[in-house]
Amino acid sequence: MELIKSLHRRIIFFLVLFTVIGQAKVSSVAETYPHYARRIREVKLEQIEVIDGDTFRVGRLSIRILGIDTPELKYPRYGIFYDQPYGRKAKLEAEKILNSARIIEYLPYRNDKYKRLLAHIFVDGKLFAVKMIEKSLAYETVSVYGDNGFPDLAREIKRAAKKAGKPPFMEPYRWRRINRGRK
């Protein structure tokens, strides 16, 4: 009889636990950063095409991630004729991060000279840039380009970069300068 009661209690415990876990809400950027709530845009996973580790396409909109620079991939149109080491790995990690997301959101800034929208991307409420830095697949660019009006996000990116240390590849801007146009 005592064994049946114990088993019954365990079953109830696990049912309650799974119910609570199933209802757990993934945090959105608006909850973490309420001062950006009106500017946040949500994206459906199936709309995203990963171009490389720091650039995505959402339908016709091209988005360049603020705060990071990842290794380059072959892009002959812009004079890049072969992949930078770790470029494929960065793209695969970006796809992995996004494919495991429940909520993907972006905070727009402005367009760059290539007509890409510069934006911070959030995956389940966490900065995508920080995730790539933590994987040693991105250099932070806040130190070079500033916070772009997002000082709290810039601090997070710089903090992650300091903690992660230097990635195992040449800074992409230097690599581009050396390798652009070389076949």
Walk me through the structure:
The protein is α+β, with helices and mostly antiparallel strands. The protein has a single domain (27-179), classed as OB fold (Dihydrolipoamide Acetyltransferase, E2P) (Beta Barrel). Helix content is 39%, strand content 21%. The protein contains 7 helices and 9 strands; from the N terminus they run ααβββββαβββαβααα. The protein has helices spanning 2-23, 29-32, 87-99, 128-134, 142-145, 151-164, 172-179; strands at 41-43, 48-52, 55-58, 61-65, 68-69, 104-111, 117-123, 126-127, 139-140. Strands 1, 2, 3, 4, 6, 7 and 8 form a 7-stranded mixed beta sheet that branches. A two-stranded antiparallel ribbon has the order 5-9. A hairpin with a 2-residue loop joins strand 7 (117-123) and strand 8. The N and C termini lie far apart (79 Å). Mean pLDDT is 88; it is low at 11-25.
The CATH class is identified as: Mainly Beta
Structural class determined from secondary elements: alpha+beta
Round the mean pLDDT to the nearest integer and report it.
88
Unreliably modeled segments: 11-25
